[in-house]
Amino acid sequence: MGDDLGARHASTLNEVLLPxxxxxxxxxxxxxxxxxxxxxxxxxxxLCELVSRGLGHASKLTIFTGDTTAxxxxxxxxxxxALGPALVARSAAIGGVPAVxxxxxxxxxxxVRVGPGRSAAELEVIADNWAGGVRTxxxxxxxxxxxxxxxxxxxIGACHAAAALFRQARLSEPGHSSVWxxxxxxxxxxxxxxxxxxxxxxxxxxxxxLVLAGMGAVGNAFALTALTHxxxxxxxxxxxxxxxxxxxxxxxxxxVRDHLGxxxxxxxxxxxxxxxxxxxxxxxxxxxxxxxxxxxxxPTLVSVVDTNRAREAINQLVPRTALAGSTFNLRVQTNxxxxxxxxxRCGNPPEPVEPDRDVKAxxxxxxxxxxxxxxxxxxxxxxELLTWASTPGCGELxxxxxxxxxxxxxxxxxxxxxxxxxxVLLAATAIRAQHQPLxxxxxxxxQLLRPGERLQGPQxxxxxxxxxxxxxxxxxxxxxxRIWGERPQ
Length: 489
Ligand SMILES: [Zn+2]
What we know:
binds zinc ion; nine-stranded mixed sheet; Rossmann fold; 14 helices; globular; alpha/beta
């Protein structure tokens, strides 16, 4: 398959990273001692998924699971199926880094062991119920459980293992790999400072109380984590009007090549039908979230949209509580909001939009071959497009043609483990919010470039005094009090 799947993580970020090229083979090992655990199976699935989508920093994936049978349904894996062959087939469906079952293990492979075991490995994925990470074998033996009952910690561990593999390929001096990331406390630590999580070992998640705005990469990981959470029940409602394209495949855990061109909403609904807990379901509407949830926004809005313009739009839904996950380069950020602020609009000025007349001027100035391309983008014939562009304010077509032709900003850097980690941490935060008051609004950042060097955790977050939504002249606080203020907490 082509290198295009790695295009979104090929940038050197202004020479912070080495260009793609050093691509060691990777071996992922799930030993018998961990093989019957849903948490370790899910972590193995996620790590194989992230390596498969990591074209440019791994050359080949060898999957050691012995004769393990799947005990949890995951994308591409059904309960009762042989796990190893299912993971290899899944990797082929993604069409990135090729995966094989062990025949002759490549001698120069970097080996990652998932969960407890005795085999030699460069890295171990470790986890308890809410925290996970990677360590070099033998380090920090007090961390991690043999059999976590929740999946959050092991999914976090898989993301950090993929991050460590990325750093080995893309940094000239990768430094220490070992980290521990607590999804309950949102604290990222090196192993010296790490402590087991304080989160409970059981936690119900009422999916009916959430609405999810966006089904991109962070939304995919959020939905997967929420639906597979052992305490999940109800229906998670989501909204996304976008289609799946090739640039999504390096990081969207629910989508593979066969889904290209289809609506994210339709595919997400279809592939999660038999996934996760028996009483948990996903229902994504192919529409903008501010329209889909206008009548019933629900108490908690989970924002995983990726533009400030979209954040501004869903801010108008005025949920009781809002949570947000976002990514930038190799950083993840988790936000909780409060009343009267901060809100989703605080410090997030909407991106400029190319004016309508500029789009039409581009069409009218296009040469014949460019015009054909634009027409294909807009789903019109060249003649129809020219007629549209030369007619002022042609209402009906404007709604479909303008969004299709408008210049978007330059494609930003993105890589799978960052988006996946953001979604898992956000799901952990959504579960925690149903168990204890989240307290003052906060922002928790974590960077995966040198994660062991700087401790990273939650910090208080304040409203932007100039915010047009929740600031002194904004309507948001009064609307919020009218809707939620009189009701018991
Ligand atoms: Zn605000």
